[in-house]
Protein backbone atom coordinates (compact mmCIF):
# COMPACT_ATOMS: atom_id res chain seq x y z
CA UNK A 1 0.00 0.00 0.00
CA UNK A 2 2.76 2.42 0.84
CA UNK A 3 4.32 1.74 -2.45
CA UNK A 4 1.11 2.56 -4.32
CA UNK A 5 0.89 5.92 -2.59
CA UNK A 6 4.52 6.63 -3.37
CA UNK A 7 4.14 5.93 -7.03
CA UNK A 8 0.94 7.96 -7.23
CA UNK A 9 2.64 10.99 -5.76
CA UNK A 10 5.59 10.54 -8.09
CA UNK A 11 3.28 10.42 -11.09
CA UNK A 12 1.51 13.57 -10.06
CA UNK A 13 4.79 15.41 -9.68
CA UNK A 14 5.91 14.34 -13.14
CA UNK A 15 2.64 15.53 -14.69
CA UNK A 16 3.03 18.89 -13.02
CA UNK A 17 6.61 19.19 -14.27
CA UNK A 18 5.60 18.34 -17.79
CA UNK A 19 2.84 20.93 -17.81
CA UNK A 20 5.25 23.62 -16.75
CA UNK A 21 7.82 22.65 -19.39
CA UNK A 22 5.31 22.44 -22.25
CA UNK A 23 5.70 18.78 -22.65
CA UNK A 24 1.99 18.29 -22.61
CA UNK A 25 1.28 20.74 -25.63
CA UNK A 26 0.30 24.41 -26.05
CA UNK A 27 2.32 27.45 -27.10
CA UNK A 28 5.48 28.33 -25.30
CA UNK A 29 6.38 31.79 -24.45
CA UNK A 30 9.26 33.28 -26.41
CA UNK A 31 10.70 34.78 -23.33
CA UNK A 32 11.65 38.42 -22.78
CA UNK A 33 12.34 39.37 -26.52
CA UNK A 34 8.87 38.16 -27.52
CA UNK A 35 7.24 40.12 -24.72
CA UNK A 36 8.99 43.33 -25.75
CA UNK A 37 7.97 42.81 -29.41
CA UNK A 38 4.37 42.40 -28.42
CA UNK A 39 4.53 45.60 -26.44
CA UNK A 40 6.13 47.72 -29.29
CA UNK A 41 3.53 47.54 -32.05
CA UNK A 42 4.02 50.67 -34.21
CA UNK A 43 1.09 49.81 -36.53
CA UNK A 44 -1.25 50.10 -33.65
CA UNK A 45 -0.28 53.77 -32.94
CA UNK A 46 -2.71 56.38 -34.41
CA UNK A 47 -2.07 60.16 -34.67
CA UNK A 48 -5.11 62.28 -33.69
CA UNK A 49 -5.43 66.10 -33.97
CA UNK A 50 -5.77 67.96 -30.73
CA UNK A 51 -9.20 69.37 -31.60
CA UNK A 52 -10.44 65.85 -32.23
CA UNK A 53 -9.31 64.51 -28.95
CA UNK A 54 -12.18 63.37 -26.81
CA UNK A 55 -12.84 65.59 -23.85
CA UNK A 56 -11.07 64.58 -20.79
CA UNK A 57 -13.17 62.99 -18.22
CA UNK A 58 -13.65 65.33 -15.33
CA UNK A 59 -11.72 64.43 -12.36
CA UNK A 60 -13.89 63.02 -9.73
CA UNK A 61 -14.78 65.56 -7.05
CA UNK A 62 -12.71 65.02 -4.07
CA UNK A 63 -14.54 63.39 -1.33
CA UNK A 64 -15.37 65.83 1.39
CA UNK A 65 -12.95 65.62 4.13
CA UNK A 66 -14.80 64.73 7.22
CA UNK A 67 -12.94 66.23 10.09
CA UNK A 68 -11.99 63.71 12.56
CA UNK A 69 -13.78 64.22 15.78
CA UNK A 70 -11.54 66.21 17.95
CA UNK A 71 -11.35 65.79 21.61
CA UNK A 72 -13.40 68.31 23.50
CA UNK A 73 -11.27 71.18 24.70
CA UNK A 74 -10.01 70.66 28.13
CA UNK A 75 -11.33 73.26 30.53
CA UNK A 76 -8.76 75.84 31.38
CA UNK A 77 -8.11 75.57 35.07
CA UNK A 78 -9.38 78.67 36.76
CA UNK A 79 -7.48 80.11 39.66
CA UNK A 80 -9.14 79.12 42.88
CA UNK A 81 -11.56 81.71 44.07
CA UNK A 82 -10.49 83.41 47.17
CA UNK A 83 -12.76 82.57 50.00
CA UNK A 84 -14.84 85.55 50.96
CA UNK A 85 -13.81 86.84 54.35
CA UNK A 86 -16.31 85.95 57.03
CA UNK A 87 -18.71 88.78 57.75
CA UNK A 88 -17.61 90.94 60.57
CA UNK A 89 -19.69 90.45 63.67
CA UNK A 90 -22.03 93.34 64.29
CA UNK A 91 -20.57 95.98 66.50
CA UNK A 92 -21.82 95.51 70.01
CA UNK A 93 -24.37 98.05 70.99
CA UNK A 94 -23.15 100.66 73.35
CA UNK A 95 -23.78 99.44 76.80
CA UNK A 96 -26.52 101.34 78.49
CA UNK A 97 -25.18 103.75 81.01
CA UNK A 98 -25.39 102.18 84.42
CA UNK A 99 -26.71 104.66 86.94
CA UNK A 100 -24.20 105.44 89.64
CA UNK A 101 -25.45 104.32 93.04
CA UNK A 102 -26.37 107.20 95.28
CA UNK A 103 -26.07 107.57 99.00
CA UNK A 104 -26.86 110.00 101.79
CA UNK A 105 -24.96 111.04 104.89
CA UNK A 106 -26.46 113.09 107.68
CA UNK A 107 -24.07 115.08 109.85
CA UNK A 108 -25.56 115.95 113.23
CA UNK A 109 -24.69 118.19 116.16
CA UNK A 110 -22.97 120.77 113.99
CA UNK A 111 -22.19 124.26 115.08
CA UNK A 112 -22.50 127.21 112.76
CA UNK A 113 -18.75 127.15 112.05
CA UNK A 114 -18.71 123.38 111.33
CA UNK A 115 -21.69 123.68 109.01
CA UNK A 116 -20.02 126.42 107.02
CA UNK A 117 -16.81 124.39 106.67
CA UNK A 118 -18.62 121.21 105.61
CA UNK A 119 -20.56 123.16 103.01
CA UNK A 120 -17.29 124.45 101.57
CA UNK A 121 -15.87 120.91 101.40
CA UNK A 122 -18.82 119.65 99.34
CA UNK A 123 -18.15 122.30 96.69
CA UNK A 124 -14.74 120.75 95.91
CA UNK A 125 -16.29 117.74 94.12
CA UNK A 126 -16.77 117.69 90.35
CA UNK A 127 -20.40 116.67 90.60
CA UNK A 128 -22.50 118.99 92.73
CA UNK A 129 -23.79 117.39 95.89
CA UNK A 130 -27.26 118.02 97.25
CA UNK A 131 -27.38 119.70 100.65
CA UNK A 132 -30.27 119.95 103.10
CA UNK A 133 -29.54 122.00 106.21
CA UNK A 134 -31.86 122.22 109.17
CA UNK A 135 -31.06 123.96 112.45
CA UNK A 136 -32.59 124.14 115.90
CA UNK A 137 -31.77 126.43 118.75
CA UNK A 138 -30.28 124.82 121.79
CA UNK A 139 -31.04 127.40 124.52
CA UNK A 140 -28.43 128.32 127.07
CA UNK A 141 -30.44 131.18 128.60
CA UNK A 142 -33.81 132.95 128.47
CA UNK A 143 -34.00 136.65 127.98
CA UNK A 144 -36.80 138.85 129.32
CA UNK A 145 -37.05 142.04 127.29
CA UNK A 146 -39.17 144.56 125.41
CA UNK A 147 -38.82 143.98 121.60
CA UNK A 148 -36.92 146.59 119.51
CA UNK A 149 -38.64 149.98 119.21
CA UNK A 150 -38.59 152.49 116.39
CA UNK A 151 -35.45 154.41 117.15
CA UNK A 152 -33.64 155.66 120.18
CA UNK A 153 -36.30 158.23 121.16
CA UNK A 154 -39.00 155.61 121.46
CA UNK A 155 -36.65 153.40 123.45
CA UNK A 156 -35.87 156.23 125.91
CA UNK A 157 -39.57 156.95 126.36
CA UNK A 158 -40.29 153.28 127.16
CA UNK A 159 -37.45 153.16 129.64
CA UNK A 160 -38.87 156.15 131.52
CA UNK A 161 -42.27 154.43 131.62
CA UNK A 162 -40.84 151.21 133.08
CA UNK A 163 -38.74 152.98 135.67
CA UNK A 164 -41.86 154.79 136.82
CA UNK A 165 -43.12 151.34 137.85
CA UNK A 166 -40.16 150.93 140.22
CA UNK A 167 -37.96 148.79 137.95
CA UNK A 168 -34.33 149.83 137.91
CA UNK A 169 -32.56 146.83 136.35
CA UNK A 170 -32.91 147.53 132.61
CA UNK A 171 -30.97 149.00 129.65
CA UNK A 172 -31.26 149.74 125.92
CA UNK A 173 -29.33 147.61 123.37
CA UNK A 174 -27.24 149.96 121.23
CA UNK A 175 -25.47 147.48 118.91
CA UNK A 176 -26.68 147.25 115.33
CA UNK A 177 -28.54 144.11 114.55
CA UNK A 178 -31.96 142.55 114.89
CA UNK A 179 -32.28 143.60 118.56
CA UNK A 180 -31.09 147.19 118.29
CA UNK A 181 -33.17 149.52 120.51
CA UNK A 182 -34.64 146.59 122.45
CA UNK A 183 -34.93 147.04 126.27
CA UNK A 184 -33.38 144.24 128.33
CA UNK A 185 -35.21 143.36 131.57
CA UNK A 186 -33.17 140.33 132.71
CA UNK A 187 -31.38 137.12 131.62
CA UNK A 188 -32.18 133.73 133.25
CA UNK A 189 -30.79 130.22 132.88
CA UNK A 190 -34.15 128.47 132.89
CA UNK A 191 -37.38 129.23 131.15
CA UNK A 192 -39.37 128.93 134.36
CA UNK A 193 -37.25 131.59 136.06
CA UNK A 194 -37.76 133.90 133.13
CA UNK A 195 -41.52 133.39 133.18
CA UNK A 196 -41.67 134.13 136.93
CA UNK A 197 -39.77 137.39 136.50
CA UNK A 198 -42.05 138.46 133.63
CA UNK A 199 -45.16 137.89 135.74
CA UNK A 200 -43.72 140.03 138.51
CA UNK A 201 -43.04 142.86 136.05
CA UNK A 202 -46.54 142.64 134.67
CA UNK A 203 -47.87 142.80 138.24
CA UNK A 204 -46.09 146.15 138.65
CA UNK A 205 -47.71 147.47 135.48
CA UNK A 206 -44.92 146.87 132.95
CA UNK A 207 -46.37 146.06 129.56
CA UNK A 208 -44.91 144.78 126.27
CA UNK A 209 -42.43 142.35 127.83
CA UNK A 210 -41.57 138.94 126.24
CA UNK A 211 -39.17 135.99 126.65
CA UNK A 212 -36.66 134.93 123.99
CA UNK A 213 -34.53 131.83 124.32
CA UNK A 214 -30.87 132.43 123.64
CA UNK A 215 -28.25 129.85 122.89
CA UNK A 216 -26.48 128.01 120.06
CA UNK A 217 -27.92 126.94 116.74
CA UNK A 218 -27.32 123.21 116.23
CA UNK A 219 -27.33 122.15 112.59
CA UNK A 220 -28.18 118.87 110.91
CA UNK A 221 -26.69 118.69 107.41
CA UNK A 222 -27.79 116.00 104.94
CA UNK A 223 -25.56 115.42 101.89
CA UNK A 224 -26.73 113.35 98.89
CA UNK A 225 -24.77 112.29 95.83
CA UNK A 226 -22.73 109.47 94.21
CA UNK A 227 -21.68 106.83 96.69
CA UNK A 228 -17.97 107.18 95.84
CA UNK A 229 -18.05 110.96 96.38
CA UNK A 230 -19.80 110.56 99.73
CA UNK A 231 -17.30 107.91 100.81
CA UNK A 232 -14.49 110.40 100.13
CA UNK A 233 -16.35 113.16 101.96
CA UNK A 234 -16.92 110.93 104.99
CA UNK A 235 -13.23 110.05 105.11
CA UNK A 236 -12.12 113.68 104.80
CA UNK A 237 -14.52 114.99 107.45
CA UNK A 238 -13.54 112.25 109.90
CA UNK A 239 -9.91 113.33 109.59
CA UNK A 240 -10.73 117.03 110.00
CA UNK A 241 -13.34 117.00 112.78
CA UNK A 242 -12.72 114.95 115.90
CA UNK A 243 -15.79 113.18 117.20
CA UNK A 244 -17.97 114.21 114.27
CA UNK A 245 -21.31 112.40 114.41
CA UNK A 246 -22.94 111.14 111.22
CA UNK A 247 -25.65 108.68 110.30
CA UNK A 248 -27.17 107.24 107.09
CA UNK A 249 -30.28 108.73 105.54
CA UNK A 250 -32.54 108.13 102.57
CA UNK A 251 -30.65 108.85 99.28
3D structure, described in words:
This protein has 251 residues and is an alpha+beta fold. The chain has a domain at 102-238. It is 32% helix and 22% strand. It has six helices and six strands; from the N terminus they run ααβαβαββαβαβ. It has helices at residues 2-21, 32-39, 112-122, 151-163, 191-204, 227-240; strands spanning 102-110, 130-146, 171-172, 183-188, 210-226, 245-248. A six-stranded antiparallel β-sheet has the order 3-4-2-5-1-6. The longest helix has 20 residues, at 2-21. It starts with a helix and ends with a strand.
Determine the mean pLDDT. 80
Distance between the termini: 150 Å
Q: What shape does the CA trace take? A: rod-shaped
Number of strands: 6
**Helix count, per DSSP?**
6
Helix content: 25-40%
Gyration radius, to the nearest Å? 76 Å
Order of secondary-structure elements = HHEHEHEEHEHE
Query: What spatial order of strands do you see in the largest sheet?
Result: 3-4-2-5-1-6
Catalogue the unreliable spans. Answer: none
Largest sheet: 6 strands, antiparallel
Amino acid sequence: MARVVFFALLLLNLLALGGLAGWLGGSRSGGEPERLTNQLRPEAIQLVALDRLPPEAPEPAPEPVVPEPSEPPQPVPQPPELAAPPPEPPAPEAAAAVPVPRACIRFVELTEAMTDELTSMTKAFDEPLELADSAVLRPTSYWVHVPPLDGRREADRKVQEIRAQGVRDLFILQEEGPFQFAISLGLFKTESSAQLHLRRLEARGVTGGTITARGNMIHRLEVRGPVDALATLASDTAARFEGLEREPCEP
